[in-house]
Write a structure and sequence with these properties.
The protein starts with 7 loop residues before the first helix and ends with a helix. By secondary structure, the protein is mostly helical. It has nine helices and no strands. The chain is elongated, with a radius of gyration of 17 Å.
Length: about 190
């Protein structure tokens, strides 16, 4: 069975996620996003009448759902498998983009929106981080970690991976991912042995 072609709206959202992951939110314009997605500019305003914040919010949610699907699938085999899958997602992005792209969720989180806009994209980013943490913490608890330790370790994993992706881009190397993977895996193994 063939996968249906993405709609114009889906292409625009995916294009926005890609551009935000490369340039950040403030340097990503609606006009450039439409061009990048090969969509008419009018379609962009039709689908996103509230403008850039609405588009960025959808891009963050798309990225969050994409990563969460992979996490859910891999966490079925345990928290170590989930960690590896999470790291592999971001390794693929930084390597495939020649270290030009990172995480649009992080990019939206660290940029201050204009004073006249409601930061809906930042709220969406917070929800995505919470979802990722919740998935990881749930798996850790299921495999024997104490609830508080599971929550703290899940936060550490998400924070470390997000920061490591930024370091990989800056250093143009996957070495930070390798180092982070080794240490996080050791922490997870120790937590689920207890």
């Amino acid at each position: 069975m063939t996968k249906p072609s993405p709609t114009a709206r889906e292409r625009i959202v995916a294009g926005a996620a890609d551009m935000i992951s490369r340039r950040g939110l403030n340097a990503t314009s609606i006009r450039e996003t439409a061009k990048h997605a090969r969509a008419p500019l009018g379609s962009t305003y039709h689908y996103f009448p509230e403008g850039k914040q609405q588009l960025a919010t959808e891009a963050v949610r798309l990225t969050g759902a994409w990563a969460a699907r992979s996490l859910r699938k891999e966490l079925a085999a345990g928290p170590v498998a989930g960690l590896r899958a999470f790291l592999d997602l971001w390794r693929g992005i930084v390597v495939d983009s020649d270290f030009r792209a990172g995480c649009p969720v992080l990019a939206v989180s660290i940029e201050e929106p204009p004073a006249d806009e409601t930061p809906t994209a930042q709220a969406a980013a917070a929800a995505v981080f919470e979802e990722w943490e919740g998935l990881l913490a749930g798996s850790l608890r299921e495999h024997g970690a104490e609830p508080e330790q599971a929550a703290q370790l899940a936060t550490l994993v998400v924070a470390a991976v997000e920061g490591t992706v930024a370091m990989c881009r800056a250093k143009r190397s996957t070495q930070p991912l390798d180092h982070t993977a080794a240490q996080l895996q050791a922490l997870i193994v120790a937590a689920i042995r207890d």
